[in-house]
Prior knowledge:
Elements: H1 3-46, E1 56-61, E2 67-70, E3 74-78, E4 85-86, E5 97-102, E6 105-110, E7 117-119, E8 122-123, E9 128-129, E10 135-138, E11 141-146
Amino acid sequence: MPEIVFIALKLAVILALYLFIVLALRSLYIDLLPEKRRARAAAPRVSRAVKAGRPHLRVVSDRGKAGRFELEGETVIGRGPECQLCLDDEFASQLHARIIKAGEAYLLEDLGSTNGTYVNGNRINYPVGLRHGDRISIGRTVLEFRK
């Protein structure tokens, strides 16, 4: 075989190795990117200002974190970056629960979470109406509904 064929094969193997490395680094970057977004998104959402007299959730226990979150229409709670209320809790599902406004009432619904959603210590299996002072447990996080 001519020497030019060996040179071409060496270049092809080197090019394939570089392409593999670039694709592997790109895949790692994409896998790590949502974690950064979730971390940035969690802080301002939990501490969003609450206007006087508006229904909101108050964080009762979240490993030392405190805050309030004003409820507007439908609020999805979980660890996922698409949630309106992002929790930094490994026991919460990506899409754990949601609170929806039905007229003047607010309903809490579990979205098929692994560890369940609890209201005042009772696991819920269907949408439940929330009353002032109800405690919602999602993973290790406890939220209090205020109206």
